[in-house]
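Protocol step 6 of 9: fold each sequence in the batch and record its structure tokens directly after the sequence line. For illustration, a two-sequence batch is reproduced in full.

Sequence one:
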Amino acid sequence: MRILLINPNSTAAMTAGIEKAARAAALPTTEVRAEHPEGVPPAVECYADEALCIPPTLALAEARAAAWDAIVLACHSDPGIDAVRERIVNPVIGIGEASYAAAIAAGRLFSLITLTQRFVRRKREQIRRLGLLDRCASIRTLGAGVVEGFEGKERLRDRFLAEAEAAVRQDGADCVVLGCSGMVGIAEDLQAHLGVPVVDPVVAAVKLAEAIGPIRRGPRR
């Protein structure tokens, strides 16, 4: 199977990190590559960033679709997912949707760890659209932007752990979702300390793509 991950922001180091995490999660028989479109913001942190990244992301997905079995949108907000699904026949998986699907399979109540307070309303809207508000124990923030959260994961480790522990001990979560593709590589460490499942959204999306890849969508209508 061949999976293309599209990072809707232009931070090349993040694209490389996404690809590394995806390769580590994929089966040996799965081919994985990550790309990002040109002319998009360095991070997707607000509604305007999402609006700017959607047309180039859609164009890249259309240009690459024929060569890949599944497309993964590697931004937790899943920007443009309905538009991409409308335009290509491949399975299209958003890491946000995949992470929530994994969370409700792994536990009864999940907490989402996101970046700054400005993300909270958007994340709550996303969870509401998926019909999962009653499964969400809390949304907690790190007080760091997308690029800072990716580049400073080691420095922010104690903050990640403190928020995740509070989600479990105070909010009643029995599963924690990491709400950004830049948070790759820390789920196992957090899980070892917390004793509850921690969902890496990139890993969840890759495994979901492998599971549903043989289920091809029909022609565009």
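Sequence two, same batch, same settings:
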Amino acid sequence: MRILLIEDSSQLRRSIAVGLAREGFVVDTADDGKKGLDLARSTDYDAIILDLMLPALDGLSLLRRLREEGRRTHVLILSARDTVENRVEGLHQGADDYLTKPFAFEELVARLRALIRRNYGVKTDTVSVGDIQVDFQKRVVNRDGKVLSLPPREYSLFEFLVLQRGRVVSRRMVEDHIYGMSCDVASNAVDSAICSLRKALDRPGEPSIIKTRRGMGYVIE
């Protein structure tokens, strides 16, 4: 999943970005509100983590502009402003969640995953696809009680396809959400990852879980 982190503290920004990358997220960052707004306008993020006290453009003004433009990306405010009035104002301006600093990183990840699940209409940590279970919190895939071994990139791709069940996912969508702009993606990277996933997930002689829609992309029905 692709996240935009808008935070002016270089140390905190780097720490959060590294931690989220270890959790399997693709993270783009901005150190001021104007850069953050430009990125939020140009890219389809799964969620945005937003500080309020930003240079160039403050967080609430940034959020207000996004909502006025009709952009519905889920936003988690991460701020040292910790009064009830601050939290209420942030939610009134269109934030989907509000976490105060200092914070536990585990809670940030949990809230972020919950927002992303909500974005795709999923309310639980575990989803079944046929006889396969995907645990979004533990980032594991099980079949008949046995864990299927998937490399991190292949797991992220399968998770994205599962969240998009019933919708055709194009190669461009996969590249944007799974690889991000900081990664130089080979022309056959998505096809190779799909092939690897099918080898890991499909049973011999049975139809593939992941269907190809020629000229369009891939879908889990």
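Proceed to step 7 once all outputs are recorded. Observation for sequence two: Helices lie at 10-22, 33-42, 59-68, 84-92, 105-119, 152-163, 171-179, 189-201.
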